[in-house]
Predict the 3D structure of the following.
Amino acid sequence: MILVSLVLLIVPFVFSRSMVSLINEMLIMALAGCALNLMLGYGGMVSFGPAGLYAVGAYATAILLTRYGAPFIVAVLAAPVVAAIVGAIVGWFCVRRSAVYFALLTLAFAQIIWTIIFEWYDFTNGDNGIVSIPIPEVLYVGSNIYYFSLAIVAVCIFVLWRIVNSPFGATLQAIRENPMRTEFIAVPVRRYQLAAFVISSFFLGIAGSLFCVFAGSVFPDYAHWVKSTDMLVVCLLGGIYNFAGPIVGSGVYILISKVISKNTTYWMFFLGIIIVFLVLYMRNGMVGFAAEKIFRFRNKLGAGNGEGKS
Amino acid sequence: MIFETQHLTKKFGGLTATSDVSLQIEKGELVSIIGPNGAGKTTLFNLLTGHIKPDEGKVYFQGREITGLPPHAISRMGIGRSFQRLNIFPRLTTFENVQVAVFSAQGKSHQLFTSAKKMVRKETETILESVGLLGKKDTKGGLLAHGDQKRLELGIALSVHPSLLLLDEPTQGMSPQETVETTVLIQKLVKERGLTLIFVEHDMSVVFGISDNIRVLHQGKVIFSGKPEEVRRNEEVQRIYLGEENK
């Protein structure tokens, strides 16, 4: 943990500018992944629409800054609140169904959000997106933007970590395992699923807002289902049953997609192959795979020691 | 009277799964519901616990009508239940399986930022001990032996402090040895906690071993109600149910 934070802190001194902004992207994606994974891995709710809420966060910040000239802090703080409100409305409908129907509903709502952004020119600037958003100059000095992202992502991921380890988190996992049983230990299952949906939306909104600040522009693509699948792949790649899964997944996914796309125009083809390989051979994602190997290795060591003593 | 149903009826398409069932259960009574496969036993349970809503009839618990309430509300009022299948949280440890239920019983499930790890440890371990699983508390629920899983489910059901316990085939799939142990365990727990028990069971040794009273269900109807000896003597019950078993 400490090592990782140290490495992340000295990143701007070691790497090139483009590498720093790549890591910045990874950080934001890691947060989005962890937010999604609260539902996916912990709640067992497969959402195909996280990008919709991510975009709501991004657009909330962008529109408040450009259209209403809101102070920067207000624009950033408003993003998760707006995303959570939209999440509450969308979630209210979605948690009424489970499994594949839940997934379909989330996809449908995300596409609705995408369409609204795409078509509502007067408010969202439609498919032109919103560019040259007035981000405070100070963030573009040196590596300030990187540290800004790092600080917020670190705090958010810490809060999410607290949540998954709380009684709420335990109850959420019980719901994932067996909703009917959970209902009959007097837990109003739907209400908890909705709560998970709203919390997830809140943090997706922060991730979206951070990306808006980082890129200085927003586009309807942020809400597109392709972006949602990016987030899902990040979670699955890293492993949905480990808290660190989406964090590792984000790093690996963004790295391979950038490295490959630099060398070939068919990057999606190679990415697909890599994903197939990872999913087939590392069933619980990379972190799950590693955890299992370490566990076995330790067991072996333990057994070895035991023999030594006897 | 702790529990009562009046004229409970449920149809699925053309099939009448439950037909005009009126039950009266006294506090502290141990009642078993028996009947051949497809007699509507599990449907009846699902009606009692709010998992399905009856077409007609009413359900009362401790004098209050609970017909149509959602399962979590019924559970909160003091009815515990075990299920025939899909009964535990397989990827959680045995400890966590019970802990989650204790959180709910104590109204702590919604706490977002406190660390769950060391919470309600004592209560959870007490329950694990009472069902004989304390030694396996760190094993994942899904990796327990079948008999242990059944007992774990009993532990989960007990965690919410029910006054009425509904058990759906508590010894299903157990070895004769486990069946005897579980029967003794259920009797002990029910007595200790002063519970009222309604259970569905196929194993006649368990049925006759535990029950004060037996209701025989056939084609959705209660066709006989009485003490174990009376059930044994009754010819119609013999023909419909016990006879079939002996074939």
In short: The mean pLDDT of chain B is 86. Chain B touches chain A at residues 49, 51, 70-73, 75-76, 80-81, 83, 86-92, 96-97, 99-101, 103-105, 108-117, 119, 156-157, 159-160 (CB under 8 Å).
